[in-house]
Structures are given as structure tokens and as C-alpha cells.
Amino acid sequence: MKLRNKIAGMAVLACSASLLSAPAFSQETIKLGLSIPLSGSGANWGIGSQWLCDEAAREVNASGGVKVGGKVYNFECVAYDNKYNAAEGTKVAQTLLRKDGAKFIAGSLGTAPARAMQSLTERAGVLMFTTAWGPSIKGPNYPLTFTQMNTPLELVEPLIRYIKKTHPDIKTVALLNPNDASGQDVEVIARRVWEDVGVKVIASDWYERGTTEFQPIAAKIAQLRPDVVDLGGAPPPDAGRVFKELKAAGWKGIQVVEAGTGADGLMSTGGDAAEGTYLGAAVNFDDPSATDLQRRLNEGVKKATGESVNAIQIGFYDAVKALKAAMEKAQSIEPKAVAEALPQVTFEGAYGTSAFGGKDTYGIPQQILVPVIVTQVQGKTLRQVDRLDSQELKERLQKASQ
Amino acid sequence: MQTLTQLILTGLQIGALYVIFSLGLTLIFGVMKIVNFAHGQFFTLTALLIAVLYPFFAGQGYSHVMAFSLVIAIGILASLVLGYLLYQFGFRFFQRDLAGSFILSVGFVLLIEGLLLHYFGGAVRAVPHFVEGSITVLNVNVTYQRLVLIFVSLVFTALLYWVLGHTRTGKAMRAVSIDHEAAMIQGIPYKKIALTGFLIATFLGALAGAVMAPLAMVSPTVGADYLVKGFIAVILGGLGSVPGAIVGSLFIGFIESFGGFYFDPSFANIAIFVLVMIALLVRPNGLMGNG
To answer: Among all residues of chain B, which has the CA nearest to that of A210?
Structure first.
């Protein structure tokens, strides 16, 4: 009896001690789904994006998590390989939403897999961030979809206008794009802008993602002798291969890649042929003007992928930070409430203070407001040649400070 | 005229790679009457090892030629070991079993591709050319690397023909492919011949990976694209027919070249499938198949 009482007393003491030492908030985990290419030409984009999501989640969790309604939530990034195509993107979407029960997609890379994801997320009430380029992926019909990087509507015009200003004698351009939603989206806009600046589009061709033999199409393009070859939505390894074949075919001219995200991938396959290429989606965080955060993120991505960070990947870091801000503003983790709060908040992203806007262009504020940076491969390194900050963000921050 | 010459040369180059690849596929079918979807993994493994090891050996001070020779040898050897393991622990139990070998080989593809993705990562790697520079042939610019590809394809196709026609092992393989029971009655060691045939096919797949590596973007999934085209070449030419595999491969090479030039690569891919369907409607056993 005495022993039994002693044991009971010790148990009560132990329970009291554990209650007293328990944190004020109990912690739960919010899964952030990622639909990204982890193999093939786009693999480095995906691997870097995953690292950035994990890094942002780690920072959020380390700084006390997301505080909503008296609870603390931690973020956890869950990634699957969408192989940059719609079929795999559909499987990834099903896995994330049905098996993992994710309510937030912190990034969907590739327009084709993003569309597959969106067909489920909007119906299921899941909030999705995407790097998908097409304007058709946004709008009042898709209130839970947010774009986490500049799209062709934001970056193609400054890029092409800069090139025409720098090379006023150019008269003709040949376009080559991957034959999927990403390529089709950028082709439409690039064609319009080239024509607007007085450069005639003399060819517009397509190739399937996964193509490794570019010689026939390079021979065709070289024979047309365009002043400019614009590879639109081609990932850097593909673009490098095309430029290498063009050089072997004897073509010389201005090289442009709107989806160009960095010199490393371009040069690994293109070698010297990549020299002088203009890129629309690259950033140079090796530059002396880069912030400590930008350098740290750049180093982390370099370790993970062997290449510098790029504009496509940065959106995955920004999305996590945006989610934290929006959840705490809405004081809710329900996707619809968070989606309503997102356009109202500012957050500290990789470029500095950022927000979501673009209502005048898209009818609903779903577009992340970040600078457009034009870069060029010069002497085997990437140099920033032009920068355009978001006017809407500048006005909003000015208003907020008054 | 220059355009035509360019396209013919391009078609030959593309076809040459498919020839080396598809010869291995058709040899396996001829000897063992199985379809090996894992053939692309020999191609991939060799290419990946070359992409990973060349910078290492070059960095250790080996000359370009020595480094390349070493990594090609290592890559092909690794694929031969893989091929031996797949045969010993898999395919030898499914000989002459088309459905079983199909399922087994698909399983091997998933396993090997998963392992390659895990250990090598999914990112694309580039391999420098074995021979840099180009030459003008009939007013057309051709890189030396592509000429090397054509040369290697010619040499090893001729060598395979010689082996099949003039060596004891080659004649035994032909006998087995015609009638394996009769061949066994004649004293031909079927199991040994099957293994030999499988390893020769593995070698050809690995060789294709070695010559392709400097011309394409190497990743753990690169074998899949060539596997599809290789199978189309073999089926078009006739399963088990060596001349058929050559004809089928060149056919695909020329479609890719002419189609990619006059239309675009997407159209060329569609055209390949459509033309193969038409060819099979006319000749269900392939252009040079015998039923």
C-alpha cells in the first residue's frame, strides 16, 4: 500500500512538472507542397527551389514559427518530381493533395505541371504558388493561384527593348521554344514585343522537352541567317546545346533566352558558344551589391546544385515568407482566408520588401512584385546590364511610409 | 544542293548512333527471344560515368586522350558488370518469355533509374568533345566528334557482321536465333551462347552511351529517349534482324534530320511514329523481319 502510494505520488509530481514546463503554445506542422522537376534539363531549377523552400521554412521555424489563433505552426516542405510534364505533374498533384493532405503548394514549377496542379487546387480550396508563365493561369477565375516570379508579361518587354536599344541594327529574329505550355506562353508575348520594336519574326519553331539532338533545327535556323535567335522558354542546358549547334553551323548573332536563369547551365552544354547571351530570368547574387541574405542563399543553392541561384528558384523562398505574413495577418491557416490576406501584406523576401499586386494587368492581385533584371554572359561570367524595379511596389511602400 | 548534303550527313550521324543502340536490342531478341527495356540503362550508366569521371581524371593530370580512354573503358566495364548481374539474377530465368521479360525489364528500369537518380542527381551534365574542331565536307561543316560517331558505328557494325558470319560463336548465335532446340540438339551450349549474346548487346548499348555523351545532355533519364527510338528502329526493321535494325535506325535518323529541318523537331517525332505505323500496316513483321 505504502509503495503504491509512493508510486502514485511520483506519477502526479511527474505530470505536474511536465505541465509546468510545457510551452505556452503547442506546435503543429503545416506541409508546403512542391511540384518541381528533380530530373532532366530542369533538375537544377527544382533542386535549388527545394533547398530554398527548406531554408525559408527553417528560418521561419527557428524564429518562433507562425503564430495563429494561439497556436504555433512550423513549416515543412514536401517535394515530388514532376519531370516538367503534365502527366507527372498530375501524379504529383494527386500525391500532395490526397496522400499528404497539403493545403498549401509553396511552388509549382513548369506551366504544364502547374496547370495539372491548378485543376485540383482551385476545386479543393488549396492555395498554390507557381512559377508558371502564362497569363491564362491567373485571373479572377483562379483566386487561389499566385505567381511567385516575373512572367513574360513582366520581363520580356524590358529585355527585348534593352536588346534593341543596345543593338539598333537588328532586323530579324528566329524563335525556338519547347513545345508545351511554358514555351507557348512566352512565344506569344515575345513575338508581339519583337514586332513592336521593329524586328521581324522570320521563324518560330518548337521542340519536345527531352530532345537531345538539336542539329537539324539549328541547321534550319542558321540557314535563315536571323540577326537574333530567341530561345524563349528553353532551360539553360537546352539553350546551350542549341547555341553550340548554331555555332557549328556557322551562325553568328545576338542570342537571347527569356527563361535564361544563369550562365552555369548554359555554359556547361554550350561552352564558348554561350558567350554574349542575354538572359531574362537570371540574377547575379555574386555581385558586390548583393545583400548578406542574397549571398547566403546563393551559396546554399550553389552547394546544392553547382550553379548560382536564379529568379525561378527565389520565388520558392519568397512564397514561404509571404505565407507566414499572410497567415499571421489573417490569423487563419485556411487557404481562402490566407489568399485574401496575401495581397494586403508585405514581407521580407530575397529581393527585400516584396508584396503581391498586378490587379491592373490580371484583374486580381496575384503577381509577386519583384524587379526585372537583365543579364548577359560576358567573359564566362554573368553581368547585370539593366534593372527595372516594380513601380507598383514602390508606390505601395511609399504610401505605407507616409 | 548544300542543304541536301547537310541533311543527308545529319541523318547519317543521327542514324549511326541509333544503329549501335538498336543492334544490341535486336541481338538480345534474336538470341533470347526477349525484349529488354533496361537496355537504355547500359547506355545511361556509361554516359554518366564518363560525365562524372572525366573531370576527375583530367584534374589528376591525365592527358585528354588518356582521361577519355580511361573513362570510356570504366564506363563500358561498369555496364558489362551491370549486364552480367541483370542476366544472372533476372533474364536467364525468363528466356523466350516475352511477357515475363518485359515486366522484369521494366522493373529493372525503375530500379536502376531510381538508383542513378539517387547517386548522380537529376541535373544534366556536359561532356567535352573527344575531338574538337570541324571539317568541311562537300561544302558542309561537320564536327570531328560526329565523324568519330559515324566511324565507330561503321567499325562496330562491320565487326558484328564479321562475328556473326565468320566466328564459331556468331554462327552459334545465328543457329540459336533460328531454332534454339535444333541448335541444342547439335550440341550448341545454349545458356553460354545466350549469356554471350546478352553481353555483346550490353557492350553495344554501353558503346552507344560512350559516343553519345559528348553530343547530348547526360542525365539519369537520357536512356529513355534513345530506348523509344531504338525500339522503333528494331520493330520497323524487324525484331531479331540485324540488317533490319540498321535500316530502321537510318530511317529514323533521316526522318529526324529532314523533318527537323523542313518542319521542326516536334513534327519530326510525330512523323516517325506515323510512318512506322504505316510501315507496319504494310509489313507487320517489319521491313526485313521474317515472322
So the answer is: B225
Q: What is B2-282's CATH number, 1.10.3680, 1.10.3470, 1.10.150, 3.40.50?
A: 1.10.3470
Buried b (16+ CB within 10 A) or exposed e, B75-101: bbebbbebbeebbeebbeebbeeeeeb
Mean pLDDT of chain A: 89
The structural domains of chain B, with segments of one domain joined by +, span 2-282
- How high is the ipTM of this complex? 0.79
Highest mean pLDDT among A289-298, A375-384, A387-396, B223-232: A289-298
Q: How far apart are CA A47 and CA A81, in angstroms?
A: 10
Q: Do A37 and B257 touch (CB under 8 A)?
A: no
Give B264 to chain A, closest Cα distance, Å: 6
Contact partners, residue B275, CB within 8 Å, separation at least 6: B251, B255
Cβ distance of B217 and A213 shorter than 8 Å: no
Measured CA to CA, the distance from residue A131 to residue A311 in angstroms comes to 10
At residue A64, what is the residue type? G
Q: Please report the domains of chain A, with CATH numbers, ordered by start residue.
A: 27-149+290-370 (3.40.50.2300), 153-279 (3.40.50.2300)
Q: Report whether A147 contacts A129 (CB < 8 A).
A: yes
CA–CA dist B235, B27 (Å, integer): 13
| Residue labelled with grid coordinates 536502376 | B112
- Angstrom CA distances, A102 to A1, A30, A116, A313, A333, stand at 52, 8, 16, 21, 12
pLDDT surpasses 90 at B72: yes
CB contact (8 A) between residue A212 and residue B269 = no
Amino acid in position B106? V
| Cβ-defined contact of B123 to A205 (cutoff 8 Å) | no
Nearest C-alpha neighbor of A34 from the set A133, A130, A120, A121: A130
Secondary-structure percent of chain A, ordered helix, strand, coil, rounded to 5: 50, 20, 30
At A33-68, the pLDDT tens digits run 999 999 887 888 999 999 999 999 999 999 999 999
Identify whether the C-beta of residue A200 lies closer than 8 Å to the C-beta of residue A226: no
Between chains, do B269 and A208 touch, taking CB under 8 Å as contact? yes
Of the candidates B7, B134, B219, the beta carbon closest to that of A248 is on: B134
Q: Give bridge partners of residue A257 from the DSSP assignment.
A: A279
What pTM, to 2 d.p., does this model score? 0.79
User: Distance (Å, rounded) from C-alpha B218 to C-alpha B52?
Assistant: 10
Are B55 and B290 in contact by the 8 Å Cβ rule? The answer is: no
